[in-house]
Amino acid sequence: MNPFQRVVLSFCSAVGFLVAVAAAEPIRLFYSVGPTTFEVKSFDNGIPVLDTPIDTDIERNRFEGDWSYLGELPVDSEFMSMVTQYNIGKSPKLYTNREDPSAYSVRFRFPEDLEGKTNASDGDLAVFGWLVDEELRSVVVVPLKESQRIKAESRLAGMKIDPGGRLVAWLIDEAGELKPFDKGNENVADSLRLAALNGDVDVLSQMIDETPKLLKYKDKNDRTLMMYAANGGRSNVVEYLIEKGADPFDEDKSMTNVLDIAGEGGWMDIVKVIATGDAKSSKQKLHYSLGALNAYNNGHQEIAIYLMDLGARLNIDKKSAPEKVLALLANERVELARWVQEKYKVKGSYSENGINFMHAVAGYADAELLEAVKAGGASVTMVSSKGITPLLVACGVGNRNAICWLMENGGATEESENYDPVLYAIRKGAPESVSCLIDYGVSVNKEEREGISPLMLAVSLGEREISETLLEAGGLWLFESKYNHYSLQKAIRLNSSLLMEGLFEQGLSPDHTFPSGIGLDEFAAFYDSDEILKLLERRSSDNEIKLVGTKELAVKPEFSYRTAIEYPVDLQEKYGDVDVSLKVGIVSSGDIVAVEIGEEVPNEIRKSFESTILSWKFKALEMDDSQLLAEVKFKIPLRISFREEDVFTINNVHELPRALHQVHPNYPFELKMANVRGFVDLDWVIDTEGIVRRPKVVKSSHPAFNEPAIESIKRSKWEPAKIDGEPVAVRVTQRMVFNP
């Protein structure tokens, strides 16, 4: 029995079952969104296609997470492979979750050696699972296509797990059949890494006792066994290796060591095993600082404070400390903010552009924290340079505790010239804030601008709950306003009989017609507002709805004016290609008077072009009745501006891209002070508009350089590459050098 088989057998015995045969039936995969479960039969650009809903009563293998399956994922050496490279990380303890138990997630890059263990093909799926004892707790399914690796990595990054388990993988072909893994190439090195990563001290100690030189094992990147243990959060292995004489301050080729990994992952128990006292050498001081930096950047306050108490240095001095405290408070890192504030004697009254510590905490704080910040000297009524007060911050996110405390401690409702708390809460979509302010007697009828009451604003923004709350509190509708008909159409779309009844009580007639000649009932029918239609049937003297479909028109509608729809780059990156389902209402003149966008379309896309659709115009329609509303349905394809297959290499373009504006990266303070030079190899695409797309790190000398390099290239501006004078997308690879 070779060492790897020993590790596998040890693991399988621990979980209590060892299956030696293939799955008896094909694996069926399912993905749940809310109460609806879909069977996944295909992927689109790395995302599961959800077009086949199933009966949720079907018995499936269930666990925490969105995925489930039917069939058998056997735990054996033929069909399952244990993953040998991953990181477990703790969620940071922020102010609002400080009493909650720690949450954990597994992060790893798509294992490059996975395909080498099987005859994998582009149609195959990789199934990654987190096994704890005998239970499969979480599963993530991703396509194996090379072009979808980045998307796969991002999907895997947030996989929720319980500590104490280990990551395993299966491969499934297009027919749902499991593919066997080739274990012939596995060796002692695989066994060592796996034992360290998964916390198998017994297996590890047996191997090292048999062959003592294995204690100093390093992989091709100089990563040690202790680093693998830290990646898995296994303090028992770290303790064992230190007791055996391993150096906790060994560095890999990127100058990373165990403290760096533990600081990033939030493993305080590992940090305390290594950092037992003040640093005794410059090397220790550097790694204390880098560990503290990783902890600081990832929100692990306890680790950052612990290491700084032992002498770790961060990019903080007396001049920058106030700004750091403000940022820490804004990000709920209260304990770390207090440490920095005390260490550098930062005054509690500090503010930047009118934003003070009270602004920073108002979005999440309870009364205890607000009292402490006020006692420290922060003003309750300070107005920022943009007219924002602490009360407005609390109103914007619906923090009822802070709203109540601020209202009772001087947070006056008229303290800002630019914003009214009720209007601000409406714009931020915070019904809890509106309700709370009403309880304190704040006026609900201060106009947002002339002709737009708070009630009309809430309706126009599609906030049904807020609209009904304002109406019940005495909110008024301004029927003489030039915005009346626009807002009234939005009110119909909300499909609230409570709201419409309130408008009737304020003077709206059930027989009201819009300037286009279209009545309330036609618009209600167009928007499928069944509550409004039932209400109008009871109240209106004329129940005939004059709504016609395209097939009932003598001539098919044709556009006479149509502009291009802008699809912002940030939305392209987020959503990719989207087919937008549209329904428009056209009157006889050809004007579009109503637009309904499919529910499947994300709000960000919906808001980006609805006004553009209303500016379009059709040719006049041939209709006998000028008061008819014609309903026309069609789809608009929104496409990303470049695809991977359209990206040229730098050697194949006639004119190279030219930098118009470049930003120097921020040099990590700790590395600069230690006189550490470094580099980051970056890969990115410059599209046809000169915009940087999908920047990623290919290789770097130290992970602390990665984020500054990425941010620097994102902020750069370029003149695009060209072929025959026409702009084209081009892939660029470049090394960014850091010199102190």
What does this structure look like?
The chain is of the alpha+beta class and 740 residues long. The chain has five domains: 3-186, no CATH class; 191-309, Ankyrin repeat-containing domain (Serine Threonine Protein Phosphatase 5, Tetratricopeptide repeat); 316-443, Serine Threonine Protein Phosphatase 5, Tetratricopeptide repeat (Alpha Horseshoe); 551-638, 2-Layer Sandwich (TolA/TonB C-terminal domain), CATH 3.30.2420.10; 644-738, TonB (TolA/TonB C-terminal domain, 2-Layer Sandwich). The protein is built from 28 helices and 27 strands. The strands form ten sheets. The chain has a four-stranded antiparallel β-sheet with strand order 6-12-9-10. Strands 15-20-17-18 form a four-stranded mixed β-sheet. Strand 13 and strand 14 form a beta hairpin. The longest helix is centred in the middle third of the chain and has 16 residues, at 282-297. It starts with a helix and ends with a strand. Residues 1-23 have low confidence and may be disordered.
Quick summary:
The chain has 740 residues and is of the alpha+beta class.
Secondary structure category: alpha+beta
| Topology, number of strands | 27
Query: Which band does the percent of strand residues land in?
Result: 15-25%
Biggest pleated-sheet summary: 4 strands, antiparallel
Mean pLDDT: 86
CA-atom Rg in angstroms: 31 Å
- The parts where pLDDT drops under 50 for at least 5 residues are 1-23
Number of structural units classed as domains: 5
Helical residue percent? 25-40%
Kindly report the spatial arrangement of strands forming the biggest sheet. Answer: 6-12-9-10
- Shape field: globular
> Which assembly state applies to the chains in this document?
single chain
Number of helical elements: 28
How far is the first residue's CA from the last residue's CA? Answer: 52 Å
